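User: I'm putting together notes for a lab meeting next week and I want to include a structural view of one of the chains we've been expressing. I don't have a solved structure, so I'd like a prediction I can at least talk through. The sequence is below, exactly as it appears in our construct file.
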Amino acid sequence: MDAITLDRNLSASSDLTFSKRQKRKRLFLLFGGGLILVAAGWWIWSTFIAADTESTENAYANVEVAQVTPLVGGPVKRVLVVNSQLVHAGDVLVVLDDTDLRLAVEQAEAALGHARRQVRQVQENDASLAGQEGVRDADEATARADLARAQADLDKAQLDERRRQTLAGPGAISQQEYSDAQTAVRQAKAAVAQARARIAAAEAARAAAGGARRANRALIADATIDTNPEVLAARAKLDQARVDLARAVIRAPVDGVVDQRRVAVGQRVQAGVPVMVVVPVEGIYVDANLKEVQLGRVRPGQPVRLTSDLYGSGVVYHGHVAGFAGGTGSAFAAIPAQNATGNWIKVVQRLPVRIRLDPAELRAHPLRVGLSMHATIDLSGER
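Assistant: Thanks for the context. Below is the predicted structure for the 383-residue chain, given as structure tokens.
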């Protein structure tokens, strides 16, 4: 009885061991078959699919933000936007107190009126100087006439002197009469010299009057009142004052979302100091930081499929390679790596590749700067 029971137990134990071995064998076969399928799938994917793509998760949304910078300084009167607010190009963002700017416009208007009157005065002076020039011409003509008369008197006096000299020898006239004739000659000569001096003075006065008129006319030559340089300069200052007044209202330069607002009512802003930024979300692109070993076949224009962590894999963006950065991040670092050292370790570098997105898809699913993206570049169309 015991022997029979022992045989039965041994037989059952043998069957159980055989069953376990068979089960383990099937598991090993299934595991080996799974590994073969995975390996085959990986080979097919790497050979026929991944070979024509380059992917990276080191990609982020980016955009050229628009700085909102006052072009004139002044105290802030109103701030009409807050961070995250959507604005359109031309919308009013900040209003400055324009009291000083309005006064500057009024001063420029007064300066323009003064310049017009000065030019008009110069034009009227031309007529006055022309009259003075005519007077000097008349004075010169009078002086020449006086010279002719004085010369005639001198000729007559000299003739009388010669006659009396002839008569004085035989005693036909007195010595006094002869002396009077000599005195008359000297007086006539003095009169001639005086007339010549008046001519020289008249000529000098006429030249001075002509120079003054020419100098005056140079101020208004080839120009009307409105085209005179003085008036143009005053008008330019007025235009600048009006432009500065208009700049007291700070407007959005582009469509986008307000961010980094650094201005408040009552604050005095300075020209050239940014007060906020506007992020043009419709112009967002993606910077995909590919390893240098991935860039050998990447070309501008190649299509790109992208997904974002914001929307998940259910939302796919379609874009294309727009271009490559001019250098790696380490090359443009504040303290670039100095590889010419003894302790050099090679580090695979990454180069930013700009990917332009489809505007329609971007409007349907907006992105924000800095969001993580996954980019897959299709290399199958490589030429």
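A couple of points you could mention at the meeting. The chain has five helices and 14 strands. Residues 66-98+245-278 form a domain with the OB fold (Dihydrolipoamide Acetyltransferase, E2P) fold (CATH 2.40.50.100).

User: Perfect, that's what I needed.
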